[in-house]
């Protein structure tokens, strides 16, 4: 004999289906908001929140090429803390491995937790890592505390 579903079971299946559809709809809204926010960031920042690993890697590779072609000295990659990755961060390790592939210097959690600070240039070559570091270096040469 074939099995049939009770009315309660069929209702529950319908709820599960609509719950997953609702989750996907919410996820797509989140991605659109993240994309809109990313459009307002400076070219030296890239926000990968809400992207799958493959999408994030493609977007990062594209930005690396842009930065190299335009002689940009650094890139801040916002990968997040991994709270939305079912227990283990996925983006951060994947992007760190990508930086190794390109032999780029990558400092995790700079300027803040959930970011990667990438420096372009040859290993051992001094890199200008920002106006603030230069400012601090300059004032330490002239600042005397009596």
How is this structure best described in words?
This protein is of the alpha+beta class and 146 residues long. Helices cover 50% and strands 12% of the residues. It contains four helices and four strands. A hairpin with a 6-residue loop joins strand 3 and strand 4 (115-119). The protein is globular and about 50 Å long. Mean pLDDT is 75; it is low at 5-14. Residues 46-121 form the Smr domain. Residues 1-26 are annotated as: Disordered.
Explain the layout of strands and helices.
Layout (H helix, E strand, L loop, with lengths): L6 H33 L5 E3 L5 H17 L4 E5 L12 H11 L3 E4 L6 E5 L11 H12 L4
Parallel strand pairs: 1-2
Antiparallel strand pairs: 2-4, 3-4
Helix pairs in contact: 2-3
InterPro entries: Smr_dom, Smr_dom_sf, Smr_domain_protein
Protein name: 1775_t:CDS:1
Pfam families: Smr
Reading off the top of the CATH hierarchy, the class of the largest domain is best stated as: Alpha Beta
Q: Low-confidence parts lasting 5 or more residues at pLDDT below 50?
A: 5-14
Radius of gyration: 23 Å
What structural class do you assign from the helix and strand content? alpha+beta
* Share in β-strands: 5-15%
Protein name: 1775_t:CDS:1
InterPro entries: Smr_dom, Smr_dom_sf, Smr_domain_protein
Task: Summarize this structure as a short list of keywords or feature phrases.
single chain; 146 residues; alpha+beta; Ribosomal Protein S8, Chain: A, domain 1; 2 domains; four-stranded mixed sheet; 4 helices; Smr_domain_protein; 1775_t:CDS:1; Smr_dom_sf
């Amino acid at each position: 004999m074939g099995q049939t579903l009770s009315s309660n079971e069929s209702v529950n299946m319908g709820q599960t289906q609509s719950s997953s559809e609702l989750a996907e709809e919410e996820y797509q809204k989140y991605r659109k908001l993240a994309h809109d926010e990313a459009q307002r960031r400076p070219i030296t920042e890239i926000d990968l929140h809400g992207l799958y690993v493959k999408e994030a890697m493609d977007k990062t590779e594209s930005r690396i090429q842009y930065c190299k072609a335009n002689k940009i000295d650094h890139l801040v990659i916002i990968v997040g803390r991994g709270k939305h990755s079912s227990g283990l961060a996925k983006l951060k390790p994947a992007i760190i491995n990508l930086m190794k592939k390109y032999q780029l210097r990558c400092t995790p959690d700079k300027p803040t937790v959930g970011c990667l600070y990438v420096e372009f240039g040859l290993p051992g070559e001094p890199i200008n890592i920002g106006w603030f570091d230069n400012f601090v270096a300059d004032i330490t040469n002239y600042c005397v505390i009596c």
